[in-house]
Amino acid sequence: MTQQILVLDEGTTSTRAMLFAADGALIDSAQQELTQIYPAPGRVEHDPREIWHRTLACAREMVEKAGGARNIAAIGITNQRETVVAWDKSTGEPLANALVWQDRRTADFCKRLREAGHEAEVQRATGLLLDPYFSATKMRWMVENEPAVAAAAKAGTLALGTVESWLVFKLTGGEFISDASNASRTLLLPLDAAGFDPGLCDLFGVPRQALAEVSDNAGNFGTSLPELFGAPIAITGLAGDQQSATIGQGCLSPGETKATYGTGAFILANKGQGIPVSANRLLGTVLYQIDGRRTFALEGSVFVAGSLVQWLRDSLGLLGTASETETLARSIPDSGGVVIVPALSGLGAPHWRPEARGVIAGLSFSTGRAQIARAALEAMAHQTDDLARAFAADGAKWTSLKIDGGMSANDWMAQDIANILDLPVERPEFVESTALGAAMLAGVGAGLYPSLEDASAAMRGGLDHFMPDMSAAERELRSAQWQKALSAA
Ligand code: ADP
């Protein structure tokens, strides 16, 4: 029983601890909500103490379930990316609330940097764009606006890190590292450099000495303090949530691609060892680093996926439950010409039009709930198809698509994605790919498996397959209707 793996899955709205068997079976899990702090429009914060205490409580529950720390071979951590925590290295205490990835307060600073012509060099080095989403401008904001953060910077005791960094520090009582997948979301790590770059730190106004050492994603990252769980447990796997899901889906060879359909949709394609370059405003990012060698990914995100279904349900009252969309879509032969472009908060990749707004086109007196629900699901396939074209143009043509996330439970949508992409779509029977990826990394780091390929073969379960089954004429008609509605968004 010493082969169990404890995964800490640190989401935006909740923290979870999940206990896995070495063969990838989920044994049990515990979950607690995280308080969302909204101090002003566009500002989103978390309390780092709460993150730590609730993570610890969930982890303790799972250690007890496992029959004690000695039955746990390793801890893996996966986390909401880009969110920044500031703490004091000498006391281990937070110095301010964490600034969450959704926080837009640094939009003006990003705009100034763009206007000063810095975006091309930053994109070339880091694979990212100048957007408040990423960590660096949040770090600068904290140093400039939080007196305790500024004081610690002056005293040389400041630590600025992403969430996995904060948890490793607390679990080990002082190890200060950031894994390469998380570090590659800060704007401070050149994709080809081992560590954070002094020049980028200067550009963004981040004190270099407050940053961690960049680590692998699997390896020995220290052990938890014995008093936390009754005995020390090795921390051996770390990854940002989207990278972890890509690994959990077994996308370990170049070209293999996964799409996670949750509130929004995140698509990552394995790009192998070559540094990804995008001419279509996709992001280049570290997928994982093992033994100092990096594998990269190209990433594109769609802002609105499941949140469209939520909006139909909660704001319009058109649905009782999210899953009702499937029954409604199946009840009619087509959407009757209705097309929804879900640009409710602008359009993300590959369009990048923040000013765009949503469209419902093709309404007639015969339009009912079913047509609207079907059009909402059809929009997912079209948004994915637009990204497929951008990935192909950037040299990462998909050969199949692996899907997961809460919305992927919708079989009708999964089939429609296969039809519109004209590609096989695979969905794992166990949809918690994010946690599974961290368990795989931890398994490799702990020496349970010699490589991620071995961990994947041993730990991943069965798949549901959706094969394309639509005439070219119908596909072309749907795409033409979508493009027309898109131009109105
Ligand atoms: P997140 O991790 O972003 O919070 P989840 O992966 O839990 O999201 O997915 C939940 C989203 O998926 C919700 O927005 C919900 O509306 C949508 N959803 C869940 N089940 C279905 C379904 N069967 N059909 C369509 N949408 C669904």
The residue fraction in helices comes out at: 25-40%
Report the C-alpha radius of gyration, rounded.
Answer: 22 Å
Question: How would you characterize the largest beta sheet?
Answer: 7 strands, mixed
The share of residues in extended strands comes to 15-25%
Q: Quickly give the structural class.
A: alpha/beta
Top-tier CATH class of the domain at 4-240: Alpha Beta
Instruction: Give me the number of helical elements.
Output: 17
* First-to-last CA distance: 56 Å
**Overall CATH architecture of the domain at 4-240:** 2-Layer Sandwich
Bound molecule kinds, no repeats:
adenosine-5'-diphosphate
Shape: globular
Write the layout of secondary structure elements.
Layout: E1 4-10, E2 14-20, E3 26-33, E4 45-46, H1 48-65, E5 72-79, E6 85-88, E7 98-99, H2 107-115, H3 119-126, H4 135-145, H5 147-155, E8 158-161, H6 163-172, E9 177-179, H7 180-183, H8 198-204, E10 213-215, H9 226-229, E11 235-240, H10 241-248, E12 257-261, E13 265-272, E14 283-290, E15 293-302, H11 306-314, H12 324-330, E16 339-341, E17 359-361, H13 369-393, E18 401-404, H14 411-421, E19 425-428, H15 433-445, H16 452-459, E20 463-466, H17 472-488
Parallel strand pairs: 1-5, 5-11, 9-10, 12-18, 18-19
Antiparallel strand pairs: 1-2, 2-3, 4-7, 6-8, 12-13, 13-15, 14-15, 16-17, 19-20
Helix pairs in contact: 4-5, 10-15, 12-13, 13-14, 15-16
The structure holds adenosine-5'-diphosphate.
